[in-house]
Amino acid sequence: xxxxxxxxxxxxxxxxxxxxxxxxxxxxxxxxxPSYSENDKIPLGTYVFYENLSEKADDLRPMEKPPYTYLNDxxxxxxxxxxxxxxxxDNAELxxxxxxxxxxNTVFLAANDFKGKLLDTLHIEQRARVQTSDLESHPHxxxxxxxxxxxxxxxxxxxxxxxxxxEIDTASQTVLGVGNLKDEDxxxxxxxxVNFIKAPFGEGKIYLHxxxxxxxxxxxxxxxxxxYTENLLAYLDLKQxxxxxxxxxxxxxxxxxxxxILLNSKYxxxxxxxxxxxxxxxxxxxxxxxxxxxxxxxxxxxxTYDYTRTIAGMYLDKKDHKAIADKQIDYFLxxxxxxxxxxxxxxxxxxxNTLAERTNYTVEEVESLFQYIINxxxxxxxxxxxxxxLNKKITSFKKNA
Length: 401
Prior knowledge:
Elements: H1 3-25, H2 47-56, E1 59-63, H3 67-73, E2 79-83, E3 86-89, H4 91-102, E4 106-110, E5 113-116, H5 118-121, E6 125-129, E7 139-143, E8 154-155, E9 162-166, E10 174-181, E11 193-201, E12 204-209, H6 217-220, H7 226-232, E13 241-245, H8 260-264, H9 266-287, H10 304-318, H11 321-339, H12 349-357, H13 363-378, H14 384-400
Parallel strand pairs: 1-13, 2-4, 2-13, 3-5, 4-12
Antiparallel strand pairs: 6-9, 7-8, 7-10, 10-11, 11-12
């Protein structure tokens, strides 16, 4: 090994060691993963809330089993408490849970997204409020009851969309809390949207809260936000058994990798990386002399463009203008969902108003375009001129949106 070779190798190893040192010594970024686990002290964990709840509740029971398994074997009365970023109950589990509630029990559900048939069963619709005027969205929360309501709304001072309920059954369901996105420096909710309701079911009741972040460490440790969460617990009977769900947590402990212990330790992790780096350096400097020449293999040609032209030609040859129009409409709706951040599930007046606010068009212009699109969708066949007119309208709309 020559002197220059040794100097070069030593310089590379020293430079690599410095880079690894600076990388290992820099502070870890804040983890905003929405685990809502009672064991996590990250911003969106529930360690603080769980510790506080364990002091207030007479009988707090962590439940690692799925609700279906436990409720099938138990006749105990109490409150089942769920906090998660997303909640999905299959039909069998939902029926078991609702049967348990109907016998005089309580279920508290806090999630940003309720999937499955739960909301349909309760005749409730959920929507998201997204901030379009500012770079960040800060939700505000407050309770409705005058004895629990605060003079100023409580703020979640981190970028977050606001989830709310709409079209609830006001004849039987009760609005308990409201909120909205923060409007500049105002601490009062000007246009309240429902995010906390009580829905009776049989002899029991179901509480639905669309903002699980109010139970997070970050929210509770910010100013006086803990008052909101404490007032919220006033609706629960903490003298009865309180079953704390651990099964639906995103942050529940699941070790799927055999390298979990190795990578979970900072020092073992970097020792592992150094080993890999050493092997790579050995291959680069010692292995290249011994390796045989490698035949150059030309990469496969990208046939996407030719494929697209072929498929388009097939449609044109068949003169299936309706199929082309349907695909163009699907792509246009995808453009609206991804670029304009607007839900296209239901093309109603709310949709037209929202799309008009986010583009340079009036409500009448938006409605006119979609009436034409709906008319095209309802026809079994369309002419070439109608297809050309549709293309002109969509292209013009996207260009000036």
